[in-house]
Amino acid sequence: MAEVSEERPAVKRKSPVRELLETLVLALLFAFVIRTFVVEVYQVSGSSMTNTLHDHERVLVNKFIYRLRDPQPGDIVVFRYPRQPERDFIKRVVAVAGDTVEMRGGEVYVNGVRFPEVSTVRMSAGDFGPYVVPEDSVFVLGDNRSNSEDSRYFGEVPLENIRGLAFARIWPLTEIGGLTSPAQGDRS
User: Fold this and answer.
1) Which of 40, 55, 77, 104 pairs with 88 at a CA distance of 20 to 30 A?
2) Paired strand residues for 41
3) What is the DSSP string of 43-73?
């Protein structure tokens, strides 16, 4: 009768330091991929989006959505400022390529139809346009129209400058929630 060995093959264990380093590298790589391609946190600076967003609030920005579709009127987007691409701005899209934008008595009209504003928009008294939005770009306005540097001043925003869609406020904790667009029913 043959004997069967009771010995098990030796399992080579990694040192705890090596396991920790491997876990940290994987976590950093995973965080880098998420931040670069999926979602990133941005801090609002200034008052151009007041009352929708306030200075120092933090928002989540979906960086993936515009790989699937183009920006739509009502979207709140983060983009590289056309005059200084190292700076990021946040504004609301009111018109897309081919649309004609005009402001009369503080009201925004796109293709002759009054733009459905959310209730948090502060209107301005100024007039603007008409202005036809060129191909591969969008026209953006701040929700605080009297205190906003937007497409009325720097022109259209090329699609390639758009970083993503702001979809939720995450700071301060008392204000956590989704950001609405006129298409979602929060109309004035």
Assistant:
1) 104
2) 60
3) E--SSTTTTTS-TT-EEEEESSGGGTS---T
Give the pLDDT of residue 4. 63
Residue ranges with strand state E in the chain = 39-43, 58-62, 76-80, 88-96, 100-104, 107-110, 113-114, 128-132, 137-141, 157-158, 162-171, 177-178
Q: Contact, 99 vs 132, CB < 8 A?
A: yes
Of 63, 91, 137, 148, the catalytic one is 91
Catalytic residue among 14, 47, 48, 146: 48
pLDDT band at 36 (very low <50, low <70, confident <90, very high): confident
- Give the pLDDT confidence score for residue 65 in this predicted structure: 93
Cα 89-137-64 angle, rounded to 5 deg? 65
d(CA 168, CA 59) in angstroms, rounded, equals 6
pTM, 2 dp: 0.81
Strand order in the sheet with 100-104: 113-114, 107-110, 100-104, 128-132
- Is residue 144 classed as helix, strand or coil in its secondary structure? strand
Which secondary structure element, helix H or strand E, spans residue 37, and what is its range? helix 16-37
Which residues contact residue 14 at a Cβ distance below 8 angstroms, ignoring those fewer than 6 apart?
22
pLDDT in tens, 137-152: 999 999 998 888 999 9
> In the annotation, is 63 catalytic?
no
Instruction: State the pLDDT at residue 13.
Output: 82
